Amino acid sequence: MAKMKFKRTEFDPKALDAPYDPGERRQNYLGEIPKTGTPLNMRVTKAWMTLSSGGDQQTKLLLIAEQNDGKYEEFNGLPVWEPLTWSKPSARRYMAFLTNFDLTTHDVFSSMDVEVEDDNVGTPINSIADWEVGSDDALCRVIIKRDRNLDGDLVAKVDWDGWLPFEEPEADEEPEERPARRPARAKPAAASRRRAEPEPEPDENEDDDDEYDDDAEDEYEDEPEEEAEPEPPVQRRRGTTTTRPAARTNSRAPARETTRGRVRDNKAAAGRAADRDRRGYGSNEELPF
Questions:
Q1: Regarding predicted confidence, which is higher, 216 or 92?
Q2: Which of 43, 68, 94, 123 could form a disulfide with 84 if both were Cys (CB 3.0 to 4.6 A apart)?
Q3: 155 has which bridge partners?
Q4: What backbone torsions phi and psi does residue 74 show, to the nearest 5 degrees?
């Protein structure tokens, strides 16, 4: 067994023994990679300025899925790495990013705030113009494309023209409770629908004769009077004279003269006049009485 020997120029322990910033600990995503075309709400949590393999300026973005619900909730925490290479052949990718966040190439050129020191990825970007990395301004909706990296591992990327505005998740609203229906009220009978009319108050100045009902008087007038039966003839017996009892007459006399009675009297008078004519009394002769 032999020991490893280094030259100071190859490995300087004093220079390498330096303080470090552990930074934010990332949680490893252990879920499934969504299918191509899956829309997810995401946030641009980190951004760096670096160089591409071809030597062009490049902005590298790290997006983390969040605030997804329903069938997409399982993808919350999914990381997506998106390199934006600043060259005309890649305009389709970086222009979609700038347009979604209302930025321009001039903002990247003159209004980008970065950290003084680089890290292991590149120069950290704090903001571009008024767009701040990691804030709510960096929320967006991304269409996912499933792909494989150089190691052959399945990864998620941003699809072509896959940048969209952020959509708030729909809140679950509780259904409104419908009030219980009131039982149907029974319809009143036809006779009871009419309101009873108040009886008129009696007038103190009216005569006592008004107490009699005209309808009651009509009953007396319409009721036919019973005619008296003729008296029975007298039967003579030896030593005695016997008469039959008088026929029962109507004991109730009308209180007032009725129309029917007046008509009967007129008929009797006409009969007597006709009888006189038969006896020979002319209309121009004096009456015998």
A1: 92
A2: 94
A3: 147
A4: -65, -15
> What is the percentage of the chain residues whose pLDDT exceeds 70?
55
Q: What is the pLDDT of residue 132?
A: 97
Tokens representing 53?
Answer: 């393999």
**What own/partner pairs with CB < 8 Å and gap ≥ 24 does 116-122 have?**
119/23, 119/48, 121/46, 121/48, 121/50, 121/60, 122/48, 122/49, 122/50, 122/51, 122/60
Report the chain's C-alpha Rg in angstroms.
Answer: 63
Task: Write out the DSSP string of 36-101.
Answer: TT-EEEEEEEEEEEEE-TTS-EEEEEEEEE-S--GGGGGGTT-EEEEEEE-SGGGHHHHHHHHHHT
Arithmetic mean of pLDDT over the chain:
75
Task: Look at residues 186, 165, 147, 179 and name the one whose alpha carbon lies nearest to residue 36.
Answer: 147
Judge whether 275 and 287 are in contact, CB under 8 Å. no
Instruction: Count Cβ neighbours within 10 Å for each residue of 219-238 and write b for 16 or more, e otherwise.
Output: eeeeeeeeeeeeeeeeeeee
Contact (Cβ atoms closer than 8 angstroms) between residue 124 and residue 115: yes
C-alpha span between 7 and 261 (Å, rounded): 163
Residue with tokens 């591992």: 153
Domains and CATH numbers, the chain: 30-164 (2.40.50)
* d(C-alpha 9, C-alpha 282), whole Å: 183
